Amino acid sequence: MKGLTIGGVTPLSTLDFPDALAAVIYCQGCPWGCPYCHNEPLREITDRTERDGASVLAWLAGRRGLLDAVVFSGGEPTLQEGLGGMLGAVRDLGFKVGLHTTGMFPQALERVLPLCDWVGLDIKAPRADYARVTGVAGSGEAAFASLALLLASHLPFETRTTWHPGLLSEAALVALARELAEAGAGRWVIQAFRPDGCADPDLAAAGPTAFPPDLVSRLLAVAPRLTITTRS
Prior knowledge:
Layout: E1 6-13, E2 22-27, H1 53-61, E3 69-73, H2 83-92, E4 96-101, H3 106-112, E5 118-122, H4 130-134, H5 139-153, E6 157-163, H6 170-183, E7 187-192, H7 201-205, H8 215-222, E8 227-231
Parallel strand pairs: 2-3, 3-4, 4-5, 5-6, 6-7, 7-8
Antiparallel strand pairs: 1-2
Keywords: 4Fe-4S, Iron, Iron-sulfur, Metal-binding, S-adenosyl-L-methionine
Pfam families: Radical_SAM
Domain Radical SAM core: 16-232
C-alpha cells in the first residue's frame, strides 16, 4: 500500500496481542536513538523491503480463520502516511488490529486510534529523563501526551518499559511507576533488556538484565493501582 514501507513480517506470534494469535508487521523508520534498541535495522526507511502493503494484504486474506489479529510494530508505525489506510484494510479483512508505538507523534496516533483494537505504548523513562534515553529533546512530553490520548480513548492498552540499569536506575524506575500511577495507567509491562539485536556494544556486553526479586514489590508500594508484569 502506498506510503507504508514494511521491513519484515512475523507470521505468527502469541505475545504481541493479548490472548490472540497475531501476525506482526514491522514498519521502517524511527528518528529516536534509544541505545538498547533491538530493531536497529528498522530505524532508516530504505528501499530494502521484504514485502509491500498489497502483498501483505493478499497474504493476510489467506490467513483468515487462522489468525485473530494483526499488529503493526516498528520502527515507529505512526511515522508513515500509509498506516491508517493499511489498518483500515486489515480491519476490513476481519482481523483485530494492534499497534506498538513509542507515542512520539501524538497527533498521528490520535488519527489512527479509531482503527485500533489494542495498543502497546512504550514508556521509556520518567518524563524528565526521556531525552537521555532517546537523544531527542521533548520526547517525554510527546510520549506522555500519547498516554493521555490513550486514557481518554478508553481503548484497551498497556504501557511497556525496557529496563537496563545502565540507562535507568532502580530509583528512576520507581519514579516512573509513580508517574504512571498518577496518570491513571493500568497495566505496565517491564521488559528486562536482552542484548540480541542491540547495536550498542557497551550495553550488549553487559548481557541480559537481572531483575531483582524485590523490585516489583517496591514498585507496587508507590503505585498500588498499577498491574505490573515483568518479562525477562
